[in-house]
Design goal:
Elements lengths: L3 H16 L19 H14 L11 H16 L3 H10 L4 H14 L5 H8 L6
Helix pairs in contact: 1-5, 2-3, 2-5, 3-4, 3-5, 4-5
Length: about 130
Protein backbone atom coordinates (compact mmCIF):
# COMPACT_ATOMS: atom_id res chain seq x y z
CA UNK A 1 0.00 0.00 0.00
CA UNK A 2 2.75 2.42 -0.92
CA UNK A 3 1.92 6.04 -0.31
CA UNK A 4 -1.34 5.34 1.48
CA UNK A 5 -0.82 7.76 4.33
CA UNK A 6 0.65 10.64 2.39
CA UNK A 7 -2.22 10.89 -0.10
CA UNK A 8 -4.83 10.76 2.61
CA UNK A 9 -3.17 13.35 4.79
CA UNK A 10 -2.68 15.71 1.85
CA UNK A 11 -6.33 15.43 0.89
CA UNK A 12 -7.54 15.75 4.49
CA UNK A 13 -8.10 19.49 4.42
CA UNK A 14 -10.04 19.37 1.16
CA UNK A 15 -12.05 16.41 2.41
CA UNK A 16 -12.87 18.15 5.68
CA UNK A 17 -14.27 21.08 3.70
CA UNK A 18 -16.26 18.79 1.45
CA UNK A 19 -17.65 16.94 4.46
CA UNK A 20 -19.22 20.16 5.67
CA UNK A 21 -21.40 20.28 2.59
CA UNK A 22 -24.89 18.94 2.99
CA UNK A 23 -26.68 17.70 -0.07
CA UNK A 24 -30.44 17.53 -0.11
CA UNK A 25 -32.19 14.78 -2.00
CA UNK A 26 -29.38 12.34 -2.69
CA UNK A 27 -30.57 9.72 -5.08
CA UNK A 28 -29.89 6.03 -4.81
CA UNK A 29 -28.06 4.36 -7.63
CA UNK A 30 -27.86 0.72 -8.53
CA UNK A 31 -30.53 -1.88 -8.01
CA UNK A 32 -29.71 -3.33 -4.59
CA UNK A 33 -32.71 -3.84 -2.32
CA UNK A 34 -33.32 -0.78 -0.19
CA UNK A 35 -33.24 -0.83 3.57
CA UNK A 36 -33.79 2.06 5.90
CA UNK A 37 -30.65 3.89 6.87
CA UNK A 38 -30.28 5.14 10.41
CA UNK A 39 -29.33 8.77 11.10
CA UNK A 40 -25.57 8.09 11.22
CA UNK A 41 -25.68 6.10 7.97
CA UNK A 42 -27.73 8.81 6.25
CA UNK A 43 -25.24 11.45 7.35
CA UNK A 44 -22.36 9.25 6.17
CA UNK A 45 -23.94 8.67 2.74
CA UNK A 46 -24.70 12.38 2.32
CA UNK A 47 -21.10 13.28 3.14
CA UNK A 48 -19.72 10.62 0.79
CA UNK A 49 -21.88 11.99 -2.03
CA UNK A 50 -20.69 15.54 -1.24
CA UNK A 51 -17.03 14.55 -1.16
CA UNK A 52 -17.11 12.37 -4.26
CA UNK A 53 -19.67 14.23 -6.40
CA UNK A 54 -17.10 16.00 -8.60
CA UNK A 55 -15.14 12.79 -9.16
CA UNK A 56 -16.06 10.10 -11.67
CA UNK A 57 -15.83 6.65 -10.19
CA UNK A 58 -17.42 3.50 -8.86
CA UNK A 59 -19.35 5.34 -6.14
CA UNK A 60 -21.73 6.71 -8.77
CA UNK A 61 -23.10 3.23 -9.47
CA UNK A 62 -23.51 2.20 -5.81
CA UNK A 63 -26.79 2.63 -3.98
CA UNK A 64 -26.98 4.59 -0.75
CA UNK A 65 -27.41 1.29 1.07
CA UNK A 66 -24.27 -0.12 -0.54
CA UNK A 67 -22.32 3.01 0.34
CA UNK A 68 -23.53 2.75 3.96
CA UNK A 69 -22.51 -0.92 4.00
CA UNK A 70 -19.09 0.03 2.63
CA UNK A 71 -18.63 2.48 5.50
CA UNK A 72 -19.77 -0.06 8.07
CA UNK A 73 -17.35 -2.60 6.60
CA UNK A 74 -14.49 -0.12 6.87
CA UNK A 75 -15.42 0.50 10.52
CA UNK A 76 -15.50 -3.25 11.23
CA UNK A 77 -11.99 -3.65 9.87
CA UNK A 78 -10.75 -0.62 11.80
CA UNK A 79 -12.34 -1.88 15.04
CA UNK A 80 -10.67 -5.25 14.47
CA UNK A 81 -7.30 -3.50 14.30
CA UNK A 82 -6.93 -4.23 10.57
CA UNK A 83 -6.95 -0.86 8.78
CA UNK A 84 -5.21 -2.35 5.75
CA UNK A 85 -8.20 -4.67 5.38
CA UNK A 86 -10.55 -1.68 5.27
CA UNK A 87 -8.42 -0.17 2.54
CA UNK A 88 -8.25 -3.44 0.61
CA UNK A 89 -11.97 -4.15 0.88
CA UNK A 90 -12.95 -0.73 -0.45
CA UNK A 91 -10.44 -1.12 -3.29
CA UNK A 92 -11.88 -4.54 -4.15
CA UNK A 93 -15.38 -3.00 -4.16
CA UNK A 94 -14.12 -0.82 -7.00
CA UNK A 95 -13.29 2.45 -5.27
CA UNK A 96 -10.26 4.30 -6.59
CA UNK A 97 -7.50 5.10 -4.10
CA UNK A 98 -8.79 8.65 -3.71
CA UNK A 99 -12.41 7.54 -3.30
CA UNK A 100 -11.37 4.84 -0.85
CA UNK A 101 -9.50 7.35 1.29
CA UNK A 102 -12.51 9.67 1.38
CA UNK A 103 -14.89 6.85 2.33
CA UNK A 104 -12.56 5.70 5.12
CA UNK A 105 -12.10 9.21 6.50
CA UNK A 106 -15.81 9.95 6.48
CA UNK A 107 -16.57 6.56 8.06
CA UNK A 108 -14.18 7.36 10.91
CA UNK A 109 -15.71 10.82 11.38
CA UNK A 110 -19.34 9.74 11.24
CA UNK A 111 -19.81 6.00 11.80
CA UNK A 112 -16.96 4.98 14.09
CA UNK A 113 -15.35 8.00 15.74
CA UNK A 114 -14.05 5.66 18.46
CA UNK A 115 -11.48 4.45 15.90
CA UNK A 116 -10.14 7.95 15.16
CA UNK A 117 -6.95 7.68 17.25
CA UNK A 118 -6.01 4.29 15.79
CA UNK A 119 -6.83 5.49 12.28
CA UNK A 120 -4.66 8.61 12.69
CA UNK A 121 -1.80 6.46 14.04
CA UNK A 122 -2.13 4.18 11.00
CA UNK A 123 -2.03 7.17 8.65
CA UNK A 124 1.20 8.42 10.19
CA UNK A 125 2.87 5.00 9.91
CA UNK A 126 5.29 4.74 6.99
CA UNK A 127 3.94 2.52 4.19
CA UNK A 128 5.11 -1.08 4.16
CA UNK A 129 7.68 -1.84 1.52
Amino acid sequence: MAGRGRGRVAGGAALAGACLLVLVGCSSGGSAPKRSLDAKESSFVTQVHAALAPLPGKHTSRSDTQIADDGEGACSALKSGKPDDAYGTLKSDGYSAGDEAAVEQIAVQVLCPDTRAAYQAWLSTPPKS
